Amino acid sequence: MTSNDDHHLPPRPMKDSQSQMAEVVLPNDANPLGNLLGGRLMHLIDIAGALAAHRHSRSYVVTASMDHIDFLAPVHIGDLLILKSSVNRAFTSSMEIGVKCWVENYIAATTRHVGSAYLTFVAVDQNGHHHPVPHVIPETPDEKRRYEDAGRRRELRKHEQERRRNKIG
Ligand SMILES: CC(C)(COP(=O)(O)OP(=O)(O)OC[C@H]1O[C@@H](n2cnc3c(N)ncnc32)[C@H](O)[C@@H]1OP(=O)(O)O)[C@@H](O)C(=O)NCCC(=O)NCCS
């Protein structure tokens, strides 16, 4: 496979991958207390993340991992859930995508942050073989910070994978 440093795909601005999903929470998505199920939120995060990964790579993608996730506040039946996603950085065939979830109170015109996650998606062809993706161009100070942070998180992930491999082996 070609390395990210020597492939010739034109780099793409981070903002071009930005995606948004909106979902009204229905009874079928909730536990007996009327709160959105954590697994359902993770499912929506996966889909919102895939949108940004597809847009950046213009390719099929698979989810390789989802980092730690905190459910910061309950989401209730009837709430309007907003999920925003963007690529933070692309490596060789993988991309870190950040997803942030909000509940929008459309009566009071307020929003509440209910959870965030970082996911790694890998670009694959129709046979499931991974292939290179374009570099990301961060433009604003906030995008540059996210880009740098994503590099640090990739190193941490690699260390953690290595540690688990040694523990299992
Ligand atoms: C993800 C997958 C394509 C990686 O394939 P692989 O042959 O093991 O690939 P490699 O070890 O060579 O790694 C390829 C890339 O994936 C990344 N990767 C692999 N496993 C990873 C993990 N657990 N977390 C984060 N990144 C991972 C590598 O860092 C590498 O990134 P880079 O090319 O940017 O350096 C493969 O394991 C797979 O298909 N898994 C199943 C995915 C799936 O079904 N997801 C749920 C449904 S969408």
Report on the structure:
The protein has 169 residues and is of the alpha+beta class. It has one domain: Hotdog Thioesterase (Thiol Ester Dehydrase, Chain A, Roll), CATH 3.10.129. Helices cover 28% and strands 34% of the residues. The chain has two helices and eight strands, in the order ββαββββββα. The strands form two sheets. Strands 2, 3, 4, 5, 6 and 7 form a six-stranded antiparallel beta sheet that branches. Strand 5 and strand 6 (94-105) form a beta hairpin. The longest helix is centred in the C-terminal third of the chain and has 28 residues, at 141-168. The chain starts with 11 loop residues before the first strand and ends with a helix. Bound molecules: coenzyme A. Coenzyme A (COA) binds next to strand 3 and strand 7.
